[in-house]
């Protein structure tokens, strides 16, 4: 099942604003996506539909109770996917699924991949970027994270290419200082 990011994000934003209908619709659409996600992963471990349904419910509950942590400025599906992955990994640990329970071709996809470090790093990066002035944060986001060229970022920001380069340089220097300060404390 493909995911319609703009539609799901619109539902989440409306749900956060108190729209109960949007919240129900969001959870319904996510349950369909999560069901397919879990069934595909669990089939590789010999687990059944009932286990997938349990994980769907756990993930939906986590999405519901943690919805206040979602940042509407960010895409929704990576946030949902991170929750789904954590629930899957917790389940696999709880049920002691190991690489020996899975075919060699699927072992890396199911058991060995734990993106917690990547998610934690992304959270830390977001937190650190949040400390920067808007122009520095935006320049770093567009060029270093989103992969735009300096010229594209300049056009998008309505700034000169030199200003983008300076903001990136100063922003990265400020991030380095902030990281060094955190490591000392």
TrEMBL record:
Coiled-coil regions, chain positions: none
Domain RNA polymerase sigma factor 70 region 4 type: 124-175
InterPro entries: RNA_pol_sigma-70-like, RNA_pol_sigma-70_dom, RNA_pol_sigma70_r2, RNA_pol_sigma70_r4_t2, RNA_pol_sigma_r2, RNA_pol_sigma_r3/r4-like, WH-like_DNA-bd_sf
Domain named RNA polymerase sigma-70 region: residues: 25-96
MF terms in GO: DNA binding; sigma factor activity
Key words, A-Z: DNA-binding, Sigma factor, Transcription, Transcription regulation
SUPFAM superfamilies hit by this protein: Sigma2 domain of RNA polymerase sigma factors, Sigma3 and sigma4 domains of RNA polymerase sigma factors
GO biological process terms, semicolon-separated: DNA-templated transcription initiation
NCBIfam families with a match to the protein in the record: PRK12539.1, sigma70-ECF
Family, similarity comment: Belongs to the sigma-70 factor family. ECF subfamily.
Annotated protein name in UniProt: RNA polymerase subunit sigma
């Amino acid at each position: 099942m493909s995911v319609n990011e703009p539609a799901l994000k619109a539902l989440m934003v409306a749900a956060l604003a108190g729209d109960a209908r949007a919240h129900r619709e969001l959870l319904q659409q996510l349950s369909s996506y999560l069901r397919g996600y879990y069934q595909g992963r669990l089939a590789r471990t010999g687990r059944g539909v009932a286990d997938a349904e349990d994980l769907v419910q756990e993930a939906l509950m986590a999405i519901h109770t943690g919805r206040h942590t979602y940042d509407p400025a960010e895409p929704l599906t990576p946030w949902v996917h991170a929750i789904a992955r954590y629930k899957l990994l917790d389940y696999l640990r709880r049920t002691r699924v190991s690489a020996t329970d899975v075919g060699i071709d699927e072992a890396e996809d199911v058991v060995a991949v734990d993106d917690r470090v990547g998610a934690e790093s992304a959270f830390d990066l977001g937190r650190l970027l949040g400390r920067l002035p808007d122009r520095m944060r935006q320049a770093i986001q567009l060029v270093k994270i989103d992969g735009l060229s300096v010229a594209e970022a300049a056009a998008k920001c309505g700034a000169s290419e030199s200003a983008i380069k300076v903001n990136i340089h100063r922003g990265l220097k400020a991030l380095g200082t902030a990281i060094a300060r955190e490591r000392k404390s």
